[in-house]
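Hi support team,

I've been running sequence recovery on a batch of backbones for a student project. Most finish fine, but this one hangs at about 90% for roughly twenty minutes before it completes. I'm not sure whether the input is malformed or the queue is just slow. I've pasted the structure tokens below so you can try to reproduce it. Let me know if you need the job ID as well.

Thanks,
M.K.
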């Protein structure tokens, strides 16, 4: 089987590489000539563990290719995936579908014979219907079916998520399209992956419902963490206690400074707008969006409080800038709210992130970027953990203490043990547990 992947962003590149690993012939298409040239040279536009090796191996095997020529890229493809960006539209919070519709128009001009056109991008309910209308209007003679096949990839573990998914969702009522999609995902049938066939609109809704539910779960445990601090409870024990309930589950019950990334912020907002337009408001998700935005802004106050009520003239060592570990993604990262607020309050910020500093430089100014975690802490009045990279978990506490000007640690990801920090003489504050020292 031959497929074309339109877009070499996070979803398109990972999906294309993984399909090629299944033995499918894949050609990835992107208008960005520089990105395609770099991919052909083996340079990844994103950081995702294992992706560079996966791409290299399948390019060498001849199963994975890259091009800027859409017409040539889709030639002979049985399935064409639309995996372009759907960012939040300025002004109203809706998903910007201009890239999706532009891709649909180009695809319409290029397809020959029966073709399955798959929306892999996260799109609001009804988008598949509009893509079908655009292609039908442009090419009344074309034989095609538009399918919804949302992705459920977690940044940092996307390859494993694709190869061993919890489920695959396919939205179509066209039998020929079902056969093509079933054949494409046949390797996953062999490991008994649940394949959910449903309608296009239902498939589109599943994606948004999943992401907004997880965002709500994160926001729930964050608010519980705040209450734990007030009443003297330990949020980690609370999370374990409720997570062992099979109806709740233990995932996404880790308190922190608020969710970020490429999916949850824009998808919660897009679903809220869709619901409002259809006069069926989602009050819970509206609150989730508001609470999360407020939480990220409030985190700087925690740092300031830990530093005695003021950071004016003080130096803060920041560990982690990406919204989560194992990615260089800075989209809606808590650091984008916290760092500027600290600078505005008079602090000097020294920062280190293993992968995200190149992206951070485009978004955060007036920061001293450092080559290591310990360098970021040199002479700092306080250390702040914003991203839970594994290398931060095993840092030498004696060295941290001797490197800092004052033994103040604000752990917004709860990577350290409060009892151990107390023994080491730190003034330590975290999320959902009582602070120590001071």
């Amino acid at each position: 089987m031959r497929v074309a992947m339109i877009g070499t962003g996070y979803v398109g590149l990972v999906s294309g590489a993984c399909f090629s690993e299944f033995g499918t012939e894949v050609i990835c298409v992107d208008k960005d000539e520089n990105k395609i040239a770099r991919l052909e040279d083996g340079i990844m536009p994103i950081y995702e563990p294992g992706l560079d090796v996966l791409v290299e191996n399948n390019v060498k095997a001849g199963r994975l290719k890259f091009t800027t020529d859409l017409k040539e890229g889709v030639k002979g493809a049985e399935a064409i995936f639309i995996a372009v960006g759907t960012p939040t539209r300025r002004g109203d919070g809706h998903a910007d579908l201009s890239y999706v519709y532009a891709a649909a128009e180009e695809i319409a001009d290029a397809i020959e014979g029966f073709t399955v056109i798959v929306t892999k991008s996260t799109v609001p309910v009804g988008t598949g219907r509009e893509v079908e209308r655009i292609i039908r209007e442009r090419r009344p003679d074309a034989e095609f079916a538009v399918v919804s096949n949302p992705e459920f990839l977690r940044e940092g573990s996307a390859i494993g998520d694709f190869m061993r998914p919890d489920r695959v969702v396919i939205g179509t009522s066209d039998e020929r399209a079902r056969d093509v999609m079933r054949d494409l995902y046949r390797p996953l049938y062999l490991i008994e992956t649940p394949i959910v066939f449903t309608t296009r609109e239902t498939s589109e809704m599943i994606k948004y419902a999943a992401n907004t539910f997880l965002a709500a779960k994160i926001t729930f445990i964050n608010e519980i963490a705040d209450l734990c601090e007030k009443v003297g409870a330990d949020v980690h024990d609370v999370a374990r206690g409720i997570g062992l309930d099979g109806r709740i589950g233990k995932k996404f019950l880790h308190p922190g400074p608020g969710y970020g990334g490429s999916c949850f912020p824009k998808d919660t907002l897009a679903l809220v707008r869709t619901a409002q337009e259809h006069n069926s408001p989602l009050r819970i998700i509206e609150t989730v969006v508001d609470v999360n935005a407020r939480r990220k802004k409030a985190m700087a106050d925690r740092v300031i409080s830990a530093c005695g009520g003021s950071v004016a003239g003080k130096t803060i060592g920041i560990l982690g800038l990406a919204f989560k570990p194992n990615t260089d993604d800075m989209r809606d990262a808590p650091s984008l709210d916290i760092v500027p607020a600290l600078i505005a309050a008079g602090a000097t910020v020294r920062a280190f992130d293993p992968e995200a500093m190149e992206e951070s430089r485009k978004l955060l100014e007036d920061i001293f970027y450092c080559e290591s975690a310990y360098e970021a802490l040199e002479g700092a009045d306080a250390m702040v953990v914003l991203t839970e990279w594994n290398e931060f978990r095993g840092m030498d506490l004696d060295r941290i203490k001797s490197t800092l000007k004052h033994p103040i640690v604000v752990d917004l990801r709860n990577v350290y043990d409060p009892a151990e920090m107390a023994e080491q003489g730190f003034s330590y504050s975290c999320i959902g547990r009582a602070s120590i020292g001071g």
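--
Follow-up from support: It reproduced on our side and the slowdown came from queue contention, not your input. The mean pLDDT is 96. No action needed from you.
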